[in-house]
Amino acid sequence: MTAEKDFSQYAHPDALVSTEWVAQHKGDPSVVLLESNEDVLLFETGHISGAQKIDWHTDLNDPVTRDFLGPEQFAQFAASKGITPETTVVFYGDKSNWWAAYALWVFTLFGHKDLRLMDGGRAKWTAEDRELTTDVEPVEPAEYPAPAARDDSTFRAFREDVLEHFGKPLVDVRSPMEYSGARTHMEGYEQEGAMRGGHIPSAASVPWAKAANEDGTFKSREELEQIYTEGAGLGSAEEVIAYCRIGERSSHTWFVLQHLLGYDNVRNYDGSWTEWGNAVRLPIATGEQPGEVPNR
Amino acid sequence: MSHTEPTQNGQPPETELPEQLAAVIEEFEALEERQKLELLLEFSRELPDLPERFTGGYDQMEQVVECQSPLFLTLEYDDDAGTAALFFAAPPEAPTTRGFAAILYEGLSGLTYQQILAVPEDLSERLGLTRAITPLRLRGMTAMLGRIKRNIRAHLAETAPGQDG
Fold first, then answer.
1. Phi first, then psi: what are they for B106, rounded to 5°?
2. For the segment A218-271, what is each residue's pLDDT rounded down to a tens digit?
3. Is B125 an interface residue toward A (CB < 8 Å)?
4. What's the domain count of chain B?
5. pLDDT in the model for residue A185
6. A88 φ, ψ to 5°?
7. What dihedral angle (degrees, nearest 10) is formed by the CA atoms of A109, A114, A118, A122?
8. How far is B156 from chain A (nearest CA, A)?
9. CB under 8 A, 24+ apart: contacts of B114-117
């Protein structure tokens, strides 16, 4: 086993915890563990003792409109998990924390202060032969006052915001085939396709998984700077917008840019390609080159 | 037990499902939503290991790329009987995929080519899992079924000249 990684290298070291930290703190009353997976049954096969399941699809989305929960619903949901506004909420999950990062980002919109990811996610925990349980302990509901609003402007971008943003860095985190326009959907997600293929003009292509090591942990700050700051040309930009297909893969990149590299303001455009690639008259670039910033 | 209802709202009457498949669907139909997930988990645990002749590796098998997690699939044909046996492999960290595979294994393996080709495309919806699993995730199962049928059609096309029925 390698030595524990030093999180102080990252811009916001508190946004990450190690598996060892979780092992030691999972019983703390001030800590709530939420497991967020792509596989809807994985939690049931075994999870970290005391962790609760969160389903990004059925728990965080409005059932009718394409949007997230409102503040009232969020407060009810959080309370049902035993979370108060002071709780340290730690997310972890399968697939390099892809869906855990998404859940964390949605919690961010409601202004919850102490949100963390377990570096390496579920795969690292199991690779270290740490214990899993199938027991689900009953949860004492907590009080969570409804936030005044869901903040849709600080960390979330809508398509109008993307149009305003042109000229500043955009990151497309989808696969190269989706970026170039050769594919109009992600492999395995045919239903979430778009009428047109390609990318938002001027966006740099950095597939989300580049930020993760083989074992699902995040790469070092130095490596991440090479990928994003230099490779994708983000430089010292103050504002960045990331997008993918529906905003889940880009939540992972959002976490990297906002918390690990410390860009001042990173927004996730959750409408992403399923909105942009289906919208009338929005500019699109195809091929491997980012393309020019459109004249407006 | 599948039953043929009189035609309602202009829909053609349901074609009878093969017994072993109907039994699986009935098992799911009888349950509340939460229990349906538990049953799917049970199925995932019961997916049989690959027979030894396949343990040489996954490269002998075909990967179903539409699935969110790796799933390998292969068929063995008995042309005399006109039946196909199905073999699946999926990792333990993909229980939903394993569950879908186990449903198809139990519901379809050993049936005749024609019976398998006649299985309705909306099979995944008939399990009543749409709410709990979401339609998006159920697509993996529809993709598996499509892949099985495609394999059988390809096999039939290959062997057609030899068939003198």
1. -70, -35
2. 999 999 999 999 999 999 999 999 999 999 999 999 999 999 999 999 999 999
3. no
4. 1
5. 66
6. -80, 110
7. -60
8. 27
9. B114/B82, B115/B18, B116/B84, B116/B148, B116/B149, B116/B152, B117/B149, B117/B152, B117/B153
Ramachandran angles phi, psi of A176, nearest 5°: -55, -35
Asked if residue B10 belongs to a domain, the reply is no
Q: Does some domain include residue B165? A: no
* Mean pLDDT of the A5-13 span: 97
**B15-47 core/surface letters (b: 16 or more CB in 10 A; e: else):** eebbeebbebbebbeeeeeeebbebbbebbeeb
B115: in domain: yes
What is the span of the domain harbouring residue B80?
Answer: 16-48+61-159
The nearest CA of chain B is from the CA of A136 a distance in Å of 14
Residues of A designated catalytic: 244
- CB atoms A41 and B40 under 8 Å: yes
B118 touches chain A (CB under 8 A): no
- Residue B6 inside a domain? The answer is no
Whether ipTM exceeds 0.85: no
Tens digits of residue pLDDT in B14-58? 568 999 999 999 999 999 988 999 999 999 999 998 888 876 666
SS3 content of chain A, % helix, strand, coil (to 5): 35, 15, 50
Closest-CA distance of chain B to residue A42, Å: 6
Model pTM greater than 0.80? Answer: yes
pLDDT at B159 over 70: yes
| CATH for B43 | 3.90.1010.10
Residue in A42, A58, A190 nearest the CB of B93 = A42
pLDDT at A53: 96
Regarding predicted confidence, which is higher, A139 or B62? A139
B41 at A interface, C-beta within 8 A: yes
**Token pair 């214990």: residue:** A131
